[in-house]
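If you are new to this repository, start here. Below is one unmodified record pulled from the training split, so you can see the exact layout before writing a loader.
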Amino acid sequence: MTELARQAMAARQKAFAPYSGFLVGAAVETTDGAIYTGCNIENASYGLTVCAERVAIWKAISEGVPPGAFRAIAIAADSPHPTPPCGACRQILAEFAPQATVTLINLQGVTREFTVAELLPESFNASYLR
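And here is the target side for that same chain:
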């Protein structure tokens, strides 16, 4: 298991998911090798729940990592098959980490790997706003 996957697994343990019971952890690696982690945080008003992937990306951005400076993200969840990011997280990855490798891992160690473009082909981007 890679260090990034280990950190995603550890972040999963910090998740706050009293409603779904579905704990997710993520760890994102920057192009300079720094790692930022995140976990899902639920709210009784489900629309206010935040996914682990977004927490990790936003944590890095809030610490000064520029958009595009991410090389990889690992996402860990307890599911029979590795769980891919939701649509909102795919859009965040497409904007902030378009070149990143996405590794999905479950608790049994089964992994799958994708590019962001494979997960969200033809993503919406700022060029549509011009």
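Two things worth knowing about this chain: The longest strand covers residues 70-77. The two ends are 43 Å apart (CA to CA).
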